[in-house]
């Protein structure tokens, strides 16, 4: 059964998605994306949305833009 996220989280995920699009070759946006997604991840875990939190963790682990990693 799929998790039903509150609408506030859907809006925040949409915002983070927009940040990710802007983060290409922009280390400040990349940092903001990572921090925002990390904070959202913690909140989701606190609310016991573990499957969604796992997906966000996977995104954070796999997101390593070359420009921002220096």
Automatic annotation (TrEMBL):
Q: Which domain of life is it from?
A: Archaea
**Name of protein:** Uncharacterized protein
Q: Which organism is it from?
A: Methanosarcina barkeri 3
């Amino acid at each position: 059964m799929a998790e039903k996220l509150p609408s506030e989280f859907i809006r925040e995920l949409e915002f983070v998605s927009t940040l990710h699009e802007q983060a290409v070759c922009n280390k400040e946006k990349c940092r903001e994306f990572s921090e925002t997604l990390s904070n959202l991840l913690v909140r989701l875990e606190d609310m016991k949305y573990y499957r969604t939190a796992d997906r966000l963790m996977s995104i954070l682990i796999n997101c390593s833009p070359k420009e921002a990693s220096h």
